[in-house]
Amino acid sequence: MDLERALRLTNRNLIAFDLALGAGALMAPDATLRLLGHDEPSPDARHLFRRCGPIWLTFAAAHAVTERRDRPCDWWALAWLRGSEVATDAVWARSESFSRPGARAGLRLAGAFNLAVALGFGHLAHERPRRRTLSGRSDRARGYW
Fold first, then answer.
1. Are 22 and 53 in contact (CB under 8 A)?
2. Is residue 133 part of a domain?
3. Residue 141 lies in a domain
4. 17 domain residue, yes or no
5. d(CA 20, CA 32)
6. How many domains does the chain have?
7. Is there a domain that residue 103 lies in?
8. Which structural domain, as residue segments, surrounds residue 32?
9. For every one of its 145 residues, what pLDDT tens digit does the chain have, with 9 covering 90 and above?
10. Which residues make beta-bridge pairs with 132?
């Protein structure tokens, strides 16, 4: 599998992952936190986690839009979006409420993953050939770049 195919598959998988994470955070925060290796959350931790649900659903929407439109500007947007998440899980991993073995390491690896896909999505935006539209104009000429 080449790099472009791997990144496109990762994008599709992130639609499902962020949709599940966002929905879980909103509808079943305690169970979702347990899956992540978190202890029983305090009420404030539960509500802070639920607060992230719409954020993850927005991520899922961004990945879906990029999958559908496949424009360089969308790949750049995903690169920035994932880049904004590089340090967040590593910061969260410092919480003493993650007691399951490997939970903290998994959160730190999530940051490395976000960095890798941010760089990969940026590469896709930069390296993709410009598509011609029915009018014969490129994406850049139409203002999508």
1. yes
2. no
3. no
4. yes
5. 9
6. 1
7. yes
8. 3-127
9. 799 999 999 999 999 999 999 999 999 999 999 999 999 999 999 999 999 999 999 999 999 999 999 999 999 999 999 999 999 998 999 999 999 999 999 999 999 999 999 999 999 998 755 554 455 555 555 555 4
10. 138
